[in-house]
Amino acid sequence: MLKDANKLVQTTVLAASGLALGVALEWYKLAEPSKKREVTLQNQVPTLFIHGYAGTRLSSGLMIKRFEHYGWGQKSTVIVVKADGRLKIKGDPSIPGGFIQVLFDKNRMSIIHQTDWLWRLMSYLKNNYDIEKINIIAHSMGGVTVLNFLSKFGISDRVPHVEKVVTLGVPFNDTEVGKDGKEIEYRPLTQYGPLTMAPLFSKIKKHRYIISPDTKFLNIAGDLENGTASDGSVSLDSVLSLRYLLPRQVYHEVIVKDKKASHSRLHENRQVDKMIGQFLFGKQALQAFTDK
Question: Half-sphere exposure (CA, 13 Å, Cβ side) for 279?
Answer without folding.
Answer: 26
